[in-house]
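Bumping with the actual sequence this time:
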Amino acid sequence: MENQESAVEAATPVRRRWPVRVLLASLAGSLVLGGALALWAADEPAGQPPAPAPGAQAQAAVRAGVPAALPGLDALIGEREAYLRTHPKDARAWAVLGAAYVEQGRRTADAAGTFPKAERALRTSLAVRARGNAEALEGLAVLANARRDFRAARGFAEEALKTQPKRWTAYPPLIDACTGLGDYKAAGRALDRLTAAHSGPAVRAWAAGVYRDQGRREDAAAALADAAAAAQAPAEQAAYLERAGQLAFERGEPDAALRHFEEAVRLDPDQRAAQAGQGRALAALGRTSEALNAYRVALQRQPLPQYALELGELYESLGLTQPARVTYGLLRERARLDARGGVDDTLVLGRLEADHGDPAEAVRLLRVEWQRRPGIEVADALGWALHRAGQDAEALRYAATATDREHGGTVRSAPYAYHRGMIEKSLNQQGPARRHLQEALRINPYFSPLAVREARTALAALGEPPEVEVPR
């Protein structure tokens, strides 16, 4: 009893105050809000039952595996903690608390503060009831995915499905885990089982991710549109709109992406991935002051290393080298904090070192990551790091893996095509280099404020293909 009560006390949330040390330049301008809920309730017709309390809404979302609003999560966590102090043998309540912590940590990027508490709560749930506790196993799978420990996530999800074969909510973390490990065929099989077991907006959203990885962009966009239209709560709808914005940006449509991101933020002002997406789209549209401000707001409230990398590169593209260096330093600091929560940021650190630090260190980091999760995302990053370190022959093998349909590289990615084209250019393979650089700019002519310039410069240096007389 004493151990369980101390676990609850250890799981008590603390206020988070993020020291964001980003130097502002003279250009000062990414799965429901209390105010939004109040407006929603006020708009209900007379005689209708009142909307559920935020904690109840968050609990329904957490148990269904869909995005929940931050205020609701805070309320749910407080309620579960208070309840468990007097009911420490309730395994389901421990599992709900652990899942709520995972979602809270994901939404706030406070891995160090919330993920250890999530793990303690979920493992306490298993200790209270080991047999048949699929809910706790599923929570551990979601937590492992958030930490990018995809092998552990796959094991937990598969164990949850063995315990309860009809538990559809265990399939999404299994899909995430298989994708993270580069096992795209297994991810497709898991999606087939998911769609056979359940339907609804969450399923459509997970299907969209698999379609995107298969290169089926139109199907992915349609699935996300359906998911957003059928979402049950503003936070859930905002999350699907943010993913739709990502997809539109990858297609080279910044105007459409910006509309999706703006609507997502309107529905859920805590949707920081959409605010970072606004920065990405605004930069592509030449609205750099607004882009800088959007990135800074997102980074203040959800300080993910990926946002810091994107903001630093935007600063660099504007010639603001000192703010860029400060932001890259913030990235490294955030990665160190994430590590305390068990989160693996090796991939983004490798990308940072390859382009803005020590390429040899990037190669070392990414070789280890490739052994842990040999997916196309890591293949692309390792290939690029090898190129930056002057090892182009080996680099091309990884770049080909990231873009070769036979190896799962079916994603139509401008950065992947750009990286392969630049490696081929270094190897004096002018025809393939020209083809892949043109493909990158055709897929998305705004994919990076720095790399797009390099791609255009490289294409100009390659010139037009030589005229070859066609044999009679």
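The tokens above came from a reply further down the thread. Residues 1-47 have pLDDT under 50 and may be disordered.
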